[in-house]
Structures are given as C-alpha cells and as structure tokens.
Prior knowledge:
Blueprint: H1 2-16, E1 20-21, E2 24-28, E3 34-42, H2 45-53, H3 59-63, E4 69-72, E5 76-78, E6 83-87, E7 90-98, E8 104-122, E9 128-146, E10 152-167, E11 174-180, E12 183-190, E13 195-199, E14 204-205
Antiparallel strand pairs: 1-14, 2-13, 3-4, 3-5, 3-12, 6-8, 7-8, 8-9, 9-10, 11-12
Helix pairs in contact: 1-2
Amino acid sequence: MRSSVSMAVMLVMMSLVAGCRTVDTQVELSATQYTVTTMMLELPQESIEFLASASQSNVDTVVNRRDTKMTCFPTIHLIPDKTKEIDNRKSYVYPLEFGADGKPNRYENVKTGQLISTTLSLLKYGIPRLAISLYDSNIQKWKTFKSPIGEKYKYPVCFVRQLSTVVNPAWGQWETVGLAGEHIILVRLDQPTNSFSIGTGSPIIR
C-alpha cells in the first residue's frame, strides 16, 4: 500500500509542480549549492486510497478535488555538510500566570508559520543523504480570557504538523518522506546549476 501511494504521488507531482511556485526571480547560485524543495499534500483518507489505485489518466481527478490542499515550504539552497534553516514563524506572547496584584508574572510564547531545516551529506559514490526537519503551524481560532483584575487577553489555538527524518533521495525526483493520516510530505533534491529561479513571495497555487 505504501509503495503504491508513493508511485501515485509521483504522478500527482507531475501535475502539481507547475502550480506550486512563488513569484520567480533569477539569481546566480554557487556551483556547490544544492536545492531542496518541499511540499505537503493534504488529502482525506478516501482520496489517498483512490490516488493509490488510480491510473495516470485519473490522477487529475484527485488533484482538482476541492478537498485537496497543497502547502509549499520555503526553498532551501545549501552546500554539503552545512545546516541551512529558514524560519518564517511569528511569535505570539500572552500571559500564563498572574501575581497577587493581578498582573502577569509569567508568559507563554506560541509560534505560528513554517520552519524548515536541512543538512545534506554526500556518501560514497555521491549518494545523497538528507536530514530534514519541518514545522508547520496554523492558527485555528483565537480565545479570550480575563485576568484576575478583569483585563482581557487573547491567545491563538494552533494546529501543528511536524516531521524530522533522514532520507536518501534520488536526484531530481519527488520522494515521499512522510505519510500520516491526511498529510503527505514530499521532498525533491536537485544538484547544483549555474542559475535557478527562486521565489520572493507567497506560493501561487494555480
């Protein structure tokens, strides 16, 4: 079942790769910089099962469903044996405890958004090994509470998805690195090139 899902996901990515891009800007990269592209598909269980059994001509049926969602993580350019991290999270600080006078004396820090960290190693014969950690948090709703002296405070209730793993991806191919419930996480590792289009804005989903 898992291998069937991986094969079907590869077919999906042929349709999705053109639709998960940021606003393009040409930049010159070092000849030693590798590119890591990561994205996440969110599918209901019935779509995952259908995707695994669908023929190539039926893949678009899943991709175009309204309940299929795609999230693009920031693209990373890195050199071997160095860790590269991009942290796009925002912090929300709110009081957690109050003193005898009713004033806050301890705070909680909640972070929302995306964090991606990668480390690339080249093994014998140039086989790549990629350590990758992902964090994605979305605010589901805001809650309001009152302090002992009646002051109002708000704090976000977040939904968090995270993954840490080590994989040996094939060059230039989408690999399934996480499959849990409704979330399929994929990564692609590309070898150095003289130039590469990177995004400067939010993902454009076509």
